[in-house]
Amino acid sequence: MSRLSMLQESLQLRNEASVTFLDRPLAEAPTAQLEFPHRLFVPRSYEPSYSYPLVVWLHSDSSSEMELDGVMESLSQQNYVAIAPRGNIKSRGTQRRFHWGTTPTDCAAAEDLVWESIKSAMNSLSIHPDRVFLAGFGGGATLAQWIGLKYPSNIAGVVSLSGTFPRTARALSNWKKARDLEVLFTQCAGSTMCSNEEMARAIKIAHQAGLKFRFVQGRFDDWNADEADGLDSSMLAVANRFMMGIVTGTNIDLQPEIANDCESIEFGFN
Questions:
Q1: How far apart are CA 136 and CA 50, in angstroms?
Q2: Could you give the residue ranges of the DSSP H alpha helices within 40-188?
Q3: In the sheet where 38-41 sits, what is the strand order?
Q4: Per-residue pLDDT tens for 43-82?
Q5: DSSP-derived secondary structure for 160-172
Q6: Model-level pTM?
Q7: CATH 3.40.50.1820 fits 18-267, yes or no
Q8: 87 C-beta neighbours (distance < 10 Å), count
Q9: pLDDT over 90 (residue 114)
C-alpha cells in the first residue's frame, strides 16, 4: 500500500502563512492573509481565470497544519486550492502538535478559524463560492462534520476520514437543511480512532435523521491490520472521487482506485 507520512514538518515550523507546490517564485505566489498559523496549497498550474473548488483541511489530533502537504500529494495536485488552519489547542507533552477541542467554546473557536480561512482564500484566489468542502482526519474529521451539519447551505460537501460522528451538543440543530448535505464517512475495520461501533452509531443516526451520508469501510488483510488508524492514498483517492462527483454533478463510482491490499466496501441507504 502507498502510505502517506501525515506529519510532514518543515525544519522550522513558522507562524506566518506558508504556501506549497508552486511553479512561480514564492514572492509572486498568492497568499492567504490570516493572523493565525495555517498552510495554503495552490495547484502547480494555477489559472486565475478558473474558479477552483476549495478544500479546508482539518488535521488529526497531535498533528499540525503541515499535514496538508502529504494529503494534497495523494488527493490531487491540480483539482483544488486547499487551506489548513492549525488546531486551536496545543497537545500536551508534544512539540509543534495541536488538536481541536470538543467543548462548545472550543468548537466555536475552531469554527471561526474555518470561516476566516474560507474568507481569506476567496479574497486571495479564484475560488468557486459553491464548491467549498470541509475535510479532515480523525478529530479534524469529526469537527468537519459538526461544522458542515450546522451550516449545510454554505458547504458543498464533507469528507470525514476516520472521524466519529460528533457528540458535541446540537450537532443536528439544523438537521432539516442538513439532509441535503453530501457527506463521505470512511472508516477502516479495526480502527481505534473510529471503531466499528462508532461507524454503526453514525449509520443509525444518519438513517434516523435522513442524512445524505455515503459510508465506505476499508478492510485490511491480516498483514496490514495495524494500519487501520493510518491515512493512505486509497482513502484520499476515494475522497477525490467523491468531491469531483459533486463538482461535476455526476455519480462517480468511488471504488475503482482502491489499493489491492485494502478492500473497500461502500454501503448505506442514500
A1: 25
A2: 67-75, 104-124, 139-150, 175-178
A3: 18-20, 38-41, 81-85, 52-58, 127-137, 157-161, 182-188, 212-220, 262-267
A4: 989 999 999 999 999 999 888 889 999 999 999 999 999 9
A5: EES-PPP-STTTT
A6: 0.83
A7: yes
A8: 27
A9: yes
